[in-house]
Amino acid sequence: MPLEVRGLRCGVTTRTGHPCQRRDLGAGGRCRLHGGRSTGPRTPEGLRRVAANLPGPRPHGTDRV
Ligand SMILES: [Zn+2]
To answer: Does 2 score more than 80 pLDDT?
Structure first.
């Protein structure tokens, strides 16, 4: 949890008309339920980190034992 959202609440107006009381806020200042899904890495460093986990180009015939 980012330090700047400590002590804050999500605050999204729910279907019942009351503000969301959850405190497990993420970087967007909303809780896990209301923050939406991650859209993936944005920084060049993050993109590189993700790309490192992908299977790289593999020449034909090298994937057999
Ligand atoms: Zn919420």
So the answer is: no
* pLDDT tens profile 37-53: 878 888 999 899 988 88
For the chain, the structural domain boundaries read 1-53
Residue 28: CB atoms within 10 A of its CB come to: 13
Task: Give residue 34 CA to ligand 1 midpoint distance, Å.
Answer: 5
**How close is the Cα of 10 to the center of ligand 1, in Å?**
5
In the reported structure, the alpha carbon of residue 43 is separated from the centroid of ligand 1 by a whole-number distance in angstroms of 26
Contact status, residue 6 vs residue 27, Cβ threshold 8 Å? no
* Cβ count within 10 A of residue 19: 12
Q: How far is the CA of 2 from the centre of ligand 1 (A)?
A: 16
